[in-house]
């Protein structure tokens, strides 16, 4: 995806992560999702219009739409309380594309292979949470785990990567890829720990009828 768009995606993932752990309201995060989503649709369109059908530019640009639609859709969910299940199933498509790019990049760019794999995990979590409605695996609260995973890895995989790419200092060695993999594993383990620590303070809101309660996952109400 475009480096400028990638620069913005990190903050959207970070803020949505804070929503999932109850530190930011879903509606309060909607503006950043709408802004980033719009940018991730408009900027790639401008690039494609000027690409003159160049396959290299097209292949490097079109994945941006997947993420642009993600943030636009999620912003509308947060504002209008739309049923999130469609978004959850859409996330499987994004996760599959990300997994494909992760495999494709292993031989040429190990670091980005790990980054694509990280995004595949993120969007798979969106599917499990919002498409299937699974909010716990054993004693692990998936909403909080997902939130901390986004907080810890959103900025490093997106914003930091974009800054390095824009400055022409991107590492492509196997060693760099191994370091990126270690960071992913460490962040995953830390997300588990933080999820267990923070789940006790899970954001709980009364339903409009007052007869039931819903927990908030990514700013979207889920049955408690």
Question: How would you characterize this protein structure?
Answer:
It is a multi-pass membrane protein. Belongs to the AmiS/UreI family. This is Amidase. Pfam families: AmiS_UreI. It is built from eight helices and five strands. It is mainly alpha-helical and 224 residues long. The chain has a single domain, classed as Serine Threonine Protein Phosphatase 5, Tetratricopeptide repeat (Alpha Horseshoe), CATH 1.25.40. Helix 4 runs antiparallel to helix 5, helix 5 packs antiparallel against helix 6 (110-131) and helix 6 (110-131) runs antiparallel to helix 7.
Give a quick rundown of the structure.
It is built from 8 helices and 5 strands; from the N terminus they run ααααααββααβββ. The protein is mainly α and 224 residues long.
Contiguous uncertain segments of 5+ residues: 202-224
How many strand elements?
Answer: 5
Structural class assignment: mainly alpha
Q: What is the total domain count?
A: 1
Which topology does CATH recognise?
Serine Threonine Protein Phosphatase 5, Tetratricopeptide repeat
Rg of Cα set:
17 Å
Secondary structure: elements and pairs:
Elements: H1 3-20, H2 26-49, H3 55-61, H4 63-80, H5 85-105, H6 110-131, E1 136-137, E2 140-141, H7 142-166, H8 174-198, E3 204-206, E4 213-217, E5 220-223
Antiparallel strand pairs: 1-2, 3-4, 4-5
Helix pairs in contact: 1-2, 1-7, 2-4, 4-5, 5-6, 6-7, 6-8, 7-8
Membrane topology: Multi-pass membrane protein
Pfam families: AmiS_UreI
Main location: membrane
């Amino acid at each position: 995806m475009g480096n400028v768009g990638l620069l913005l995606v990190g903050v959207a993932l970070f803020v949505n992560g804070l929503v999932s752990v109850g530190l930011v309201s879903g509606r309060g995060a909607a503006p950043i999702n709408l802004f980033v989503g719009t940018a991730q649709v408009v900027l790639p369109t401008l690039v494609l219009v000027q690409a003159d059908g160049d396959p290299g530019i097209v292949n490097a640009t079109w994945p941006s739409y997947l993420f642009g639609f993600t943030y636009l859709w999620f912003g509308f969910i947060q504002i209008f309380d739309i049923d999130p299940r469609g978004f959850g199933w859409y996330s499987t498509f994004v996760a599959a594309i990300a997994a494909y790019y992760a495999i494709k990049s292993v031989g040429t760019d190990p670091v980005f292979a790990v980054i694509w794999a990280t995004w595949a995990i993120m969007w798979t979590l969106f599917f499990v949470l919002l498409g299937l409605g699974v909010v716990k695996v054993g004693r692990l609260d998936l909403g909080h785990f997902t939130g901390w995973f986004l907080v810890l890895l959103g900025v490093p995989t997106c914003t930091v990567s974009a800054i390095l790419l824009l400055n022409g200092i991107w590492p492509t060695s196997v060693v760099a890829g191994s370091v990126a993999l270690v960071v992913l594993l460490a962040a995953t383990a830390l997300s588990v720990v933080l999820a267990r620590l923070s789940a006790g303070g899970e954001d709980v809101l009364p339903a409009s009828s007052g007869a039931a309660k819903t927990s908030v996952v990514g700013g979207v109400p889920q049955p408690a």
